[in-house]
Amino acid sequence: MGILVANLPAFGLPESSYFSPLAWGGTAPADIAAWFATFVLVEGKMRGLFALLFGASTLLIVERADAAGLSGAAVHYRRMGVLFVIGCLHLYGLWRGDILAHYALCGAIAFLFVGLPVRWLVAVAVLFAVWDAMQGFGLWAVVQDAQTHPGSGSRGLLAGFARGFGVPPAAEIARELAAYRGSYGDVLAYRWQEAPSPVQLLLFLGPETLATMLLGMAGLKSGFLTGTWPRARYARWAAVTLGLSLPVYIAAAIHTARSGFALADVVLGAMTLAAPLRNIAVVGYAALGVLLLRPGGWLTLRVSAAGLAAFTNYLGTTLVMTTIFYGYGLGLFGQWSRAQLYLLVPFAWMAMLAWSRPWLARHRYGPMEWLWRSLARWRVEPLRTG
Hints:
single chain
């Protein structure tokens, strides 16, 4: 549900506007407020929660397979292979923002650490997080150097950064708008040329994702993610982690906005400062989530069901949002402001909460969960309960 909030600008606006409101989507107070709120509360943190739970589920599935006398490694790598194929179909066939193929590659690497005790999982996660932070600092340093020492090489470098974090040339924006407002063939051709490959994403996001997946494994082994800690301990962890991270995010957002979304400051806030804080905030969100859950409560049961069908809800969101925004659907790509995009959130959330629990009352898995399981096990798994 949180991933949808994070991904809406990538569904409805040109790519460069994800980090910079100057690129597209409006700079009215409501639009800047929407950017500010999502930067501080959502960006990177929902992806982090997704990776945290992915790491925990990886460990859970491997342990269950081993306990059943199967090869945990074989089960895991078949699952990752199928997920990679589905992710590539999603990436190139439906939406440029796919994360599934990336998770499959990271999951293949994360398996190497499943046998580590909690303290070593945390230690390796910290090493990956430090690597991620160094990458973030390096990006900012490169932009600073290119701006300080202008030349033919630096102009090309800055143009590349502007495509991701700033304001690209108007012709590039116009080309993207025309493609996504065109036919399915137009969208497919543009995405084939412009979408990052899973290998590129692994090199860029891999350290961050692996750090969070390993923290998820540690969270499962330690009991953190299963709700077995005392509530006061969860409250302390939430207070400390969110108290450390969110004020820095707020300060970075204020600085970025006051700079007029200057390229170097966008990179500084979105990549350099965010990198060392992201997983701290993710752990805080997880602790807060455990505190807020009420076993047996109406909302908890509905959210839990949406989570059990997360694969289906994730891909279903893509189908709905691309139909709304792309030319082969309603063709609204780039026509809504940033603030207007979030009007879709309550309707999408209500749909997820409405269908997931009734479906799972009659079926063992969500539709895509069933397909993934069946393909990975090379047999048709039973779907209906009873």
